[in-house]
Specification:
mainly alpha, 8 helices, 79% helix
Amino acid sequence: MIDFKGGLKIAFSKSDGNFIVKRRAVFYWLIGIVIVAVIIAAAFYLDADVRAFIASHQNPSMRNFMRNVSRFGDWPEHLALGVVLAAVAWWRGNKKWTRILLAMLIALAIAGLAGRAIKVTTGRVRPSVKSEQMWNGPSWSSKYHSFPSGHVDASVGFFGILLLANWRIGLPCLAIPILIGFSRIYGGAHYLSDVVCAAVLGILCALLVFRFVLPRIDNRQSPIEN
């Protein structure tokens, strides 16, 4: 005879296990959201103090160095690097790294476009610009494009995919967006909160691309490999 009771017990145990896993995942996500919210709030709170500290610790050599970091740390340089490396990986027949680099370029584009839309919409004045009002609403002037940092969101989105795909290579590369973020604060282009929120935006874009876009690229490549 078929053991229906045993089958029901197995089914219920599996459903209970899935429910526990889902509850645990939701709990971790809530913890993460709270931590990120606290970090963002702290960044806004420290904006003025960090700005004053940076302004009082300026020197010409550091300013020139940070200006060059900002110049070569924008999205076109990331795009050029990604395209060249993807082309090399494709030419060498390395499908894995070709897919990863394509995902990095997609995350770069999504983070850049999202950041641009927020910039234009919020109209936050840059620290180097004197204005009575901090938030000015929709504006096309670059003077009011402080929030968030376009350099940082693009760089974090780009290297965030690399971190998720291969943490041994991606983790040291995070020094690049961190340095870029510091250069934007040092040069008076952004507040601390602009950089922190841009990093959060870049991480979200990287997670979305890694979760939903990269598997689609893998599935399209698999019939060719087989």
